[in-house]
Amino acid sequence: MYYIVYGFLWLVSLIPMRILYFFSDGVYVLIYYVFKYRRDVVESNLKHAFPEKSELERTKIAKKFYHNFIDTFIEAIKLLSASDKFLAKRFTANWEVINALSPTGKSVQLHLGHNFNWEWGNVVANKKLDYTFLGVYMPLRNKIFNRLFKSIRSRSGTKLLSAKNMARDFAPYSNTKYLLGLVADQNPGNHANCLWFNFLNRPTPFVNNPAKKAVANKLAVIFAFIHKPKRGYYEAVFTLVEEDASTTTEVELTKKFVHYLEDVIHQYPDMWLWSHRRWKREWKEEYGPVL
Fold it and tell me: Is the pLDDT of residue 189 over 90?
């Protein structure tokens, strides 16, 4: 069954982008207007995040978000056949910020949020960086699509680390020069063992492990965000935050990321994953202070 699905999607990936985007627009109509996929979640999240905006303004952001959300899946399928030249033209970045650290021998930890299109970024990055690129992924429940996305994400040599077996999968690279890409705005599994911050006008839990590991291992830390100059084209912006994270604390480093993420979300609000149930758990006094 895997090869049947792969073969079908590979054929779909050969279709020119303008036609794929036409199809994406059709799916958007179904998802947004007919099935109303998580519209209540998206609308609630946007209302809390942007109370100063009118309902019309928030609706415009929501509609752009859904277009970006569906485009990401279409663009992921394109990765089955897209050439490196095609991707390098459509996904650009200031790679020099990362590569400037390579001669120092320092490993790097990259923190970014849930924003589009991380799938293209992952594939292009490994071709542009002077590092072994390690990407963390959450295994999908469907075995066929889990295998498919692992194939897509590792096509350019990215070493995939399962979020469920992080320590085991990371061990072979611990003493090498690597760049570890982390989606650092994940919803923590244990809300009593994390850091809480005011984020987008609500108390929000953030995992502290990324910052803790960076501080303990004296890693360089870079924050990243991806924006979309026009449809089908992306630009990642990397910002060096710490050359040696041991000079700061996990709380301060996490706080910097929270403020950074909030700033870029305000700049590019349609590029963040608003359908994520980020605030399904409310803060309780027993969780500790909101920083």
Answer: no
Say which residues have a Cβ less than 8 Å from residue 285's Cβ, sequence separation at least 6: none
| 3-state SS, one letter per residue, for 154-196 | CCCCCEEEEHHHHHHHHHHHCCCCEEEEEECCCCCCCCCCCEE
Residue 4 lies in a domain: no
Which distant-in-sequence residues (6+ apart) come within 8 Å of 146 by Cβ?
139, 140
Structural domain of 232:
88-287
Percent of the chain with pLDDT over 70: 100
Angle between helices 2-13 and 55-78 (to 10 degrees): 110
The total domain count for the chain is 1
CA dihedral of 170, 176, 179, 185, whole degrees rounded to 10:
30
pTM for this structure?
0.93
How much is the pLDDT for 35? 97
Neighbours of 202 (CB within 10 A): 15
pLDDT of residue 72: 95
Q: Phi and psi of 222, rounded to 5°?
A: -125, 135
